């Protein structure tokens, strides 16, 4: 047996092949599978490609029809094989096709029995049907399904079987349009089937899972067909798992009992005589009318006028589309009426209706494309005219209304020329969509314009408020917050007035307008609040800058020189008072002109607490700062809490203490430099004790010269070393600095003295050389004069070189 293990299960006479099934089960080792196996069967009309589908889908080797030898019965009875490469083990049954001419008109018992057997044994039943059979009563096996539904409920306990309808040779009609029709037909069959009392209210979903798939033509689109079959094959892997195609495993017999179970089921089915199918005449009419309808459908698809019209629609709207297409459709329907005149009226009318529906389904996408072109063209026209109207300065609302009306009128006129006579299609949905698109565009433009206006005036407020508020807070004083309030009121009113005037053309309700204006006012206030919070975060830096400015500069803004006459205590108090003033200004927001006592509280608690005579009072007032809120001030207006003020003041004093100390040190050093003379008693002692030495100097003047030279040297060193300046910062720093500068300074003095000593010698040599050159020049001139005068005696002209 080959790899696919193809075996005839039931022959054409209805005989069950017991030995063949036993050999098949042994060959594929089905007995080892337990409950982990699935059974798939396929049913459908003869020569509909069932075996071809199974061979491609499951890798089997069922015999296929040779199209070159004509259409005839290929599969006789029921054949079974194992699917190649699919886990778990999957067994597939290929059923003899229905409606075969070999069995004749009346011999349909085997068809009924094999179909019922397939539903009873299989987990998954593939129902092979042509795409054009959807909606047919006979060719879609619907009467057969109706009988099978009824008999199956009577013969077997309920078991949920998957019915997978495989739509072959799918046309351009989308599957999502075909599937609802097919499912509706199946549900109608189920509803019409007489049911036993036990299953009167049982829904179809308790017995069957209905799946619908579609495949392209194997002969015309082989590659696409194989790709779709490959994708369908993936669904059969792990089919017995929960949620799989064969997920319902109720009533499944073990694999080793499959042959016995199948034999018994076939025996029960063969003994049943109640099955029946529609009359052969109706089936012939059904098949023939279907063939005529399919021919006319194919003719319509190949119609040159239709193709040109379809291609033209792809590039844009077509004038007179409705009339042209209506004429082509009517021609195809008239040809069908002529050829199907002698067939059963009910079938003929039904198939004509189906043909018309198929044709309308075919042309509907093109009709929708026409509507789409009309809609998009009208929308683009609206956008252009609307934009031009706005650029021309027209009001927003009036421009939107007039342009929208013109756009809708253009669309309605285009729809009148696109309507098809045979179809009662409603264009209101497309019109509503166009209306929604227009409204959406108007809303988007409105939002963009309003956003631009809001952003414009917000940016103006940013420029008008940020810089001035920062400058006012930097120079904080009693007039800071009144000035900020005045600035905020003025700039806010200007911005609100400008925005209100700009909104006049938008025709908006009063509430929305007021909300936008209020939001702009709040935005202006928010700018001030944000800037105040930023400046409050830099309060310590601002306080130190103000302290340094006042402490280090006098009233004329000139840098202070600490000469010893300045009152450092008073200056420090004034500078700290100014810094405390700055902190009190930045402590809270004062945009509502409310009074508070923050400055007084800070002054008493922090500034006056340094007085020695108010120690007991300061303890009580400092404790008043142990809070996170100010009295009479809302928490949301607080920028610096009392606790933070206390901490900032402590840090401020610590960081400015060094500046005060430096000033005091500089003042003391200046005083020491100015009082370099010894005290009077020391001078008197020097006079008394040094009288003898003074008299010695008077008796020997040479000592006076030595002392004078020593004085000059000491004076030069004093000046060069800047001794008074070095000792201004203290004795120890002065000594250390002088120790490093003393030797270089002495060496510099000696070098200058040496240079001064060499200067007279150099000047003398230069004078001598100049005199010699003058003598030579004079003598030459004299000789020249003598020779020119002949007998005149030579004279020597003296030259004064003392200069």
Describe this structure in words.
With 803 residues, the protein is mainly alpha-helical. It contains 25 helices and seven strands. The protein has helices at 18-28, 50-58, 109-121, 142-155, 175-192, 222-233, 258-271, 280-302, 304-315, 321-339, 345-391, 396-416, 428-474, 480-502, 510-537, 539-552, 568-586, 598-607, 615-623, 642-674, 680-689, 691-699, 701-721, 723-726, 731-789, and strands spanning 7-10, 37-43, 78-82, 89-95, 124-130, 161-168, 208-214. It has a seven-stranded mixed β-sheet with strand order 1-3-4-2-5-6-7, sandwiched between helices. β3 and β4 (89-95) form a beta hairpin. The N and C termini lie far apart (144 Å). Residues 1-677, 723-803 are cytoplasmic.
What would the keywords be for this entry?
803 residues; mainly alpha; Rossmann fold; seven-stranded mixed β-sheet; 25 helices; EC 3.6.5.-; G_GB1_RHD3_dom; RHD3/Sey1; GTP binding; GTPase activity
